Amino acid sequence: MTVQTMLNRKKAPKIIDAVEFHLALPPYQKYTLKNGVELYTINLGTQDTLMLNWVFFAGNWYEEKNLVAATTNYLLKNGTSKKNAFTINEHFEYYGAYLNRHCQNETAEISLHCLTKHVNELLPVVSELITDSVFPQEELETYKRNMQQRLQVNLKKNDFVAGRLIEAYLFGKDHPYGRYSELQDYDLLQQGEIKDFYKNNYQNGRCIIFAAGKLPDGLIKEIENHFGSLPLHPGKNAAGNIEHKISPAAEKKYKVINDPNGVQGAIRIGRSFPNRHHPDFQKMQVLNNVFGGFFGSRLMANIREDKGYTYGIYSYLLNQIQESGLLISTEAGVEVSDATIAEVYKEMKSLRDEPIGEEELQTTRNFMIGTILGDLDGPFHVAGRWKSIVLNNLDENYFYKGINTIKTITPQELHALANKYLNPEDFYELVVV
Amino acid sequence: MIQFEKFLLTNGLRLLVHKDTSTPMAVLNVLYDVGARDESPDKTGFAHLFEHLMFGGSVNISDFETPLQLAGGENNAFTTNDLTNYHIQLPAENLETAFWLESDRMLSLAFSEKSLDVQRKVVSEEFKEHYINKPYGDVWFKMRELAYKVHPYRWMTIGKELSHIEHAQLTDVKNFFYKYYRPVNAILVVAGNVDPASVYNLAEKWFGSIPAGEKYNRQLPIEPKQTAARKLEVKADVPLDALYKCYHMGTRLDKDYYTVDLLTEVLGEGDSSRLHQTLIKEKKLFSHIESYHTGSTDAGLVVIEGKLVKGVKMEDADRAIEEELAKLKSGLIAEKELVKVKNKTESAILFEDMSVMNRAINLAMYELLGDANLMNTELDKYHAVTAENILTTSQRIFDSNNSNTLYYYSNN
Question: Given this model, what pLDDT does residue A5 score?
Fold first, then answer.
């Protein structure tokens, strides 16, 4: 008999189960620059590419007026006393480098991706952006006008509108996690307050640096040279001394008409959830996977693959430091929006009523471990994990505890968790049409 | 340099293996030589709908997703005007699971009426989500029809209209499968922490016995040379006026391809590009503008698109773009600008190739173009482009007789 005729296509090949995989988070090396700023390095990889992140504690948590943090972050590269915006952009692009800025809730970043051979041409200019940005009035005006126009376009998109509103319901419109921008907020921005924010939160700000890739000799020294003598401070505790009170909306159900001719409703269903330090957080990540965390989840299997109500439906835990949230998000035809919401609650009920079967749980365990294994591939991904650990004030035990939770959590624990957290009366519900 | 080994199975299936022991993962990628350009004009959107049906169960395996998840794997797929591609990533130890799943759906689908029924709805929702319920969502339906008169690039991958998808029948599905989804029309790439000899054995074991099928020889109408400027005006419920211009360029294998790619970088990719600097920053006519090209296998399009600052007249904005094109057509670009776009390209290639998944997909795509090793000679071709090339190519492409302009006006 040949191999071909023996082939049984109905029988799955043997697999190695996830519990057999030993996942290790490659360690960082930490340096402390002369000014106390901490530099975390991940020296890994085979390619001659680098990623550097300068994380400042300069997110909207620290602003006194809406949009000041985001605007300061955005305009960091729009002019110094020596270079105009064009010269700065041209410099980074000439070396094929990507210089990006991101403003989040507590933190705001500058990130640089470049070929290793060019890094020494780029570090001095990053340093210049941190010490000498001037925020020219003309650049600010152009930014205000263009961002207002972009916002006008986005406000036509139901999913954009829904994303803003649900977080405002969960955390309150005055809380950094729930705050969003209106067109007129841009008109109110003043150059002076941008410059003040820059002075306090960048020039003299709190900063952590991450560097990842196949690190060249001398990189640490170069970073010390360009950043170690700046009047920066070490970063600890992302929230600083500032407290913002969470004030969730009283009303739980909303229907917003955004586009009278709309053919789809943007649906968001969400509740608040404790942060990563809570013992339920990592367990909830497993339950979330079963519920709506990936393509094979119950929400997707039922609402897309069985009913065809939507192109996609997901649930996820918000990536926030102080307080998280559990969100379900989808776009569904207007005529099936109500049915979609009903099915979401049915899936919650089924998780509350009956413990997950062993086979489904094993599939979830293996999928999650496989995904983490893939996510640990390469220096940039490893650095991303470490960044999250450091900024959330955790340590590597958190990573290993998470792996252990995935491998050992029982159907009973998940059942209890569903009964604790998947009750419809705790959820805010929003449809934007 | 991306190393790979190439094998040909007895049924005509091409196999490429790329070994990288620095990752614990493996990727199995299958590319089928069929895209939206192969559809008939009254059944558009079918190649993409079909991609969805590939997840609805195969002849011996009713559920594709669960066994893959059990093996710690994840997968996805995409359809373009030119091709359809499926990729699986999983821990290298469990690679055989990917062979089992992917070979069974090449052998035969389950052809379930239920799956067709559901996926018709899912794709209809995808259509609504991306093209109806979005401001400017219909632009490319109009633009493709303006620029292409005979070539099937005149419709979108999602399909020309919802009704084509809604009317798809199971017989269409079967015919499509047996015409295009055969080993002779496919390319298999396995990459990651794998051993080429064992991969070859696995490929023979799982794919070797699938009937070869008939080679599909594509005979598409060639788009005739455009001889007069085309223009279209549209009014829609959007907040801002927008302007789109398209110019015909050569095919993916045209020797000018690399020049065109750099040309669009010079013109409108990045914050130091010409359109960004002149039209957003200096003249303040646009709030957003960019240029790029479609990069398609058959003759493609160079695109310039932007949103106008409120109050700016469409004609003035258009004229300002023309002035920038005239500058490109009338003098050599500076050496520094040329080096910049080459450096950007080198960097983009290196960053893209960091992911083993991207390397696998790119090997398949280059093999489809004729030779996977093209992947390793790209950078040299970019480096060989001169300022003179940029000049003559701009003159040829940015000819007003080759232009398609869409004025997309805001109603309010």
Answer: 57
Angle formed at CA A92 by CA A89 and CA A94, multiple of 5 degrees = 100
On whether any CB of chain A is under 8 Å from the CB of B283, the answer is: no
The whole-number average pLDDT for the span A170-182 is: 96
Could you name the CATH architecture of A253-432? Answer: 2-Layer Sandwich (3.30)
The CATH classification number of B230-410 equals 3.30.830.10
Determine the residue of chain B that is closest to A381 in CA distance: B355
What pLDDT band is residue A1 in, cutting at 50, 70 and 90? very low
Contact across the interface for A149 and B310, Cβ inside 8 Å: yes
Residue B208 with chain A: CB contacts under 8 Å: 4
Domain ranges of chain A: 29-234, 253-432
Gap between the Cα atoms of A51 and A54, Å rounded: 10
Q: Does A373 contact B25 at a Cβ distance shorter than 8 Å?
A: yes
**Mean of pLDDT over chain B:** 96
Q: Is the pLDDT of residue B126 over 50?
A: yes
> Does B232 touch chain A if contact means CB atoms closer than 8 Å?
no
Higher local confidence (pLDDT), A224 or A376: A224
DSSP state of A133: B
Rounded-to-integer distance, Cα A41 and Cα A211, Å: 5
Beta strands in A78-119 (DSSP E): 98-103, 108-115
Q: Which DSSP category does A265 fall into?
A: E
Q: What is the pLDDT, as a whole number, of residue B148?
A: 98
Q: Which residue bears the tokens 């809730």?
A: A105
CB B54 within 8 A of CB B123: no
Contact assignment for A310 to B355 by CB distance below 8 Å = no
* Chain-chain contact of B118 with A306 (C-beta, under 8 angstroms): yes
Fill in the amino acid letter for B282. Answer: E
Per-residue pLDDT tens over the stretch B46-58? 999 999 999 999 9
Nearest to A142 among B96, B239, B284 (CB): B284
The answer to whether the Cβ–Cβ distance between A16 and B69 falls below 8 Å is no
Pick the CATH number of A29-234 from 3.30.830.10, 3.40.50.2000, 1.10.3720.10, 1.25.40.10: 3.30.830.10
For β-strands B230-236 and B403-410, DSSP reports them as: parallel
Residues of chain B contacting A331 with CB distance shorter than 8 Å: 125, 128-129, 133
Query: Is the ipTM here above 0.90?
Result: yes
CA end-to-end span of chain B: 53
Whether the model pTM is above 0.80:
yes
Q: Tokens 């041409």 — which residue?
A: A121
Delimit the CATH 3.30.830.10 region(s) of chain B: 5-207, 230-410
Q: Does B277 touch chain A (CB under 8 A)?
A: yes
Give Cβ neighbours of residue B298 (< 8 Å, ≥ 6 apart). Answer: B37, B82, B151, B153, B220, B223, B251, B252
Cα–Cα distance for residue pair B194/B3, rounded to 1 Å: 13
A22 versus B44: the higher-pLDDT residue is B44
Mutate one of A25, A48, A94 to test the B interface: name it (highest B CB count within 10 A). Answer: A94
β-partners of residue A79 are A84
The CATH number of the domain covering residues in B5-207: 3.30.830.10
A173 to chain B, closest Cα gap in Å = 25
